[in-house]
Structure prediction request, 202 residues.
Amino acid sequence: MKDFILKSISFVFHPLIMPLLGVMFYFHKTPRYIPEPVQNTKIFSVVILTIILPILLFFLLRTINKVDTIYLKTTKERVIPLFINCIIITLILLRVMTPDEIVELYFFFLGILCSTLACFILALFKVKASIHMIAASGFFMFAVAIGINYQININGTIALMMIILGAIATSRLHLKAHTNQELLIGLFTGLFPQLAFLNYWL
Prediction:
């Protein structure tokens, strides 16, 4: 039962959904008026590009024996998917989340690109960082920044994300997917890019 719960945590909070959560959180919290059709278009584009397309590409890579599982357990398995993800995020920055439309989301995805690129470089050097922690900590930092920027109370979100980060770390350790060091590397790889870009929009 415990293993099932921990595996469920890893699945439910899979890194693929974090960009979508960031976009939906922003649209829910921002006091700016953004037409609903624009919001729906952005959300639909993010779902296609960050969830559906990577899943389809995963099945393709698994068919040609480049990856075994969607969790990318080895650094060798990570190289191609992370490189592809860098291209996908770049496409989003060029076509979906441009800086002249919604600057906050542009820098959110630019931070995601930097985190993904850092994880890709680490994989090339045989260093394994927790992608789950990268995604969750990046969203956490973005949520905190949104709260500060718009001076809104997001204490509930912060508390929930602290619990989720702890649950993710616990599940990854229990399942022997990562070491403490790999979790810490992932945590800071997700946090720092979001933190670094705050000066450009906060």
User: Anything to note?
Assistant: Residues 150 and 190 are 22 Å apart (CA to CA). DSSP finds eight helices and no strands in the chain. The radius of gyration is 16 Å.
